What does this fold into?
Amino acid sequence: QSALTQPASVSGSPGQSITISCTGTSSDVGAYNYVSWYQQHPGKAPKLMIYEVSNRPSGVPDRFSGSKSGNTASLTISGLQAEDEADYYCSSYTTSSGVFGGGTKLTVL
Amino acid sequence: EVQLVESGGGLVKSGGSLRLSCAASGFTFSNAWMNWVRQAPGKGLEWVGRIRSKTDGGTADYAAPVKGRFTISRDDSKNTLCLQMNSLKTEDTAVYYCTTEWVGAADYWGQGTLVTVSS
It folds into this structure.
């Protein structure tokens, strides 16, 4: 299964909003609502930020939101903060496999 | 508090074998689906495979690059997840993470264990 497609990098200033896209196929992103997003700071384990396309785990700020249209999912971060600077990965799980995106480096200017 | 602690990583020669373990606590391990995810140095995340709970069949799925070489198993009596890695290749060099899986997401992660395969 091929990796999901994400932009290599995005950037924004504090207080602004950014959106990271995640493009898959009709067999993964388009077929299931098991799309999730992860935040990873350097040297740390990834942290789940969004599950089932748009749900936030307890403790994740509501500045983080997710959506999906067809074969493309999106993560939006509003009110950017310095601590949001990290790598972000999307993922799509199916009944028999899982696949991650290539990752997007978010820079807060 | 959910805790996942991986162990067993190290340096191994190409063609060799290694067995990773993940000690779980803070949740009902026997009910959980578990995953292995890896990350090569400076690269992105790669799904390795999953094992279902025994009540859901206890079967495992694998990513294409590791199918036939890696085996995921679980010991619910010891709250332990294992990854047996055989015929290792240099491209298997990575940090290996153990995760829980819930509604199609990896919700809890361990700190990872580094596997280095030399030529």
